[in-house]
Amino acid sequence: MWLPNAPRRVRINEVSVRDGFQIEPEFVPTEQKIALIDRLSETGLARIEITSFVSPKAIPNLRDAGAVAKGIRRQRDVVYTALVPNARGCERALECDLDEINLVMSASETHNLANMRMTCDQSLEQFRGVMQLAQSAELAVSGCVATAFGCPFEGEIAPERVKWAAGRYLDLGMDSITLADTTGMADPRQVSKLVEAFLRWFPGVPLTLHFHNTRGMGLANVLAGLAAGVDSFDASLGGLGGCPFAPGATGNICTEDLVHMLESSGIDTGVDLDRLLGAARELPALVGHDISGQVVKAGKTTELHPVPEWVGAR
Amino acid sequence: MWLPNAPRRVRINEVSVRDGFQIEPEFVPTEQKIALIDRLSETGLARIEITSFVSPKAIPNLRDAGAVAKGIRRQRDVVYTALVPNARGCERALECDLDEINLVMSASETHNLANMRMTCDQSLEQFRGVMQLAQSAELAVSGCVATAFGCPFEGEIAPERVKWAAGRYLDLGMDSITLADTTGMADPRQVSKLVEAFLRWFPGVPLTLHFHNTRGMGLANVLAGLAAGVDSFDASLGGLGGCPFAPGATGNICTEDLVHMLESSGIDTGVDLDRLLGAARELPALVGHDISGQVVKAGKTTELHPVPEWVGAR
């Protein structure tokens, strides 16, 4: 039987504008970010991570976080979220009336040191301050466990370490958890096992999976997540994003390819694929390079081709 | 539980030299084809489709079929197979002492007309002649049902049509069946359903699945096939291959990415991934363009990166 535990409906969290644009070689102008978010807001996506309230020095590409957050046209059914690294970022986010903020720490101590320049304990201490601000403002908080499926420095990450990180998040009062395969190291069996363990450890806690297609396994990992019952996935328009360790490799899983696969397989995403493809088609002009999405190039499976004339003439 | 019906060991049939090279813009010189096959023969692949005994006018890139078949160094554990379109092709193949030949007809009447320039009944009539020759020579024959998961002209293909085609193959005495997603239209649910139906219709008949990654779903479709119990897959080094309807899209599923996913997930392929990656790394120089394989670019998940010095110095 076809994935007996798979959900009938999946929520998709679009991350291109944050996770993708942050590593683009060129700054994407604020008004173009806003235009893209507004366009994505009309596709039926459940959630859009619109920016990161990080230091402009750390990530110059997202130095316009406040202007983006204030400039977009909100749609009622879309959850607008943003990454927040610390209390200062949370204060900036609170000025923008978001629906949710997203906090990130790596399961790998080494990756957290390299990426965040602090230990995991220091990250959690910062989060404590963020949570006080967020809870006073009744702002929903999602906690992302980065490198949950492997670390490019440490290698395998023990599931117990992921349990520890997610447990600390929940102790701090976070509302939902994302397990992120930050550098595309997850394989389908691992996804299956870690998700099953997570659901045992934290029954009822909303779980999102964040995959990269770095080694071509992104959508297979989604299938493994679906089979284990997960109904929420991060994805990035055109497959934008990536990691500095894999130049030339593909980045985040591609939103339009994900929607195409899910809808073809009878799983409802609520997304208007044609509108999404329309937005994806304009991405290469926006970012100045080709994108890794496949459906944009090949067309949907339902788009048929004319029968060659000489065949019809037989 | 992780894919309860999945096999522990999978056989991989390498098709780059036939399915890939046949549509390359440039002819790959005979000695380079032979060198690549010899190299692939030492990786542990179960089967290699080395060429097609088709008319040199129809596919000039494979005009050296006999020279390739006679020039390679056979390894005992590898099954060497070749595509044969008709009795004339079978006669040529028989001169080369192959282990198996492969016959192809589309489930779609329109696609068969466009691709083979004959009706399905005409294809089957030709196969009758081929089978007489093959059976006299005690040569194994595999039958491939092309467009089994969808036709670019007709769209959906009724499962009953696939059953009809495979049934006719078996009536003719073929030993095994390949269901091919010729233009990358399959989705995971469809794979699951069609494979389950096939196993009910034809219990005990060896089944291979042939997928393309045209719309990014290739390895997810493999996972769906594995979940249904399939243990044999076609794949193409570097993801070579493709179809003329999707310029710019990726082609066949990529052998090294497939092996990487399966081995990471604890499924034995018998393939030495490092040797395979070594061969894949030389493909761009051989064919004169970039290839779609990801693991070649990103490295295996087990290849770690040095910790930044300033992290270690903390």
UniProtKB/TrEMBL annotation, chains A, B:
SUPFAM superfamilies attached to this UniProt entry: Aldolase
Class in the EC hierarchy, top level: lyase
EC number(s) from the headed UniProt entry: 4.1.3.4
Domain Pyruvate carboxyltransferase: 10-277
Single GO term (MF): hydroxymethylglutaryl-CoA lyase activity
Keyword vocabulary terms for this entry: Lyase, Metal-binding
PROSITE patterns: PYR_CT
GO biological process: ketone body biosynthetic process; L-leucine catabolic process
Family: Belongs to the HMG-CoA lyase family.
Alphabetical list of PANTHER family matching this protein: HYDROXYMETHYLGLUTARYL-COA LYASE (PTHR42738:SF7)
Protein name from the UniProt record: Hydroxymethylglutaryl-CoA lyase
Source species of the chain: Cupriavidus necator (strain ATCC 17699 / DSM 428 / KCTC 22496 / NCIMB 10442 / H16 / Stanier 337)
Gene: mvaB
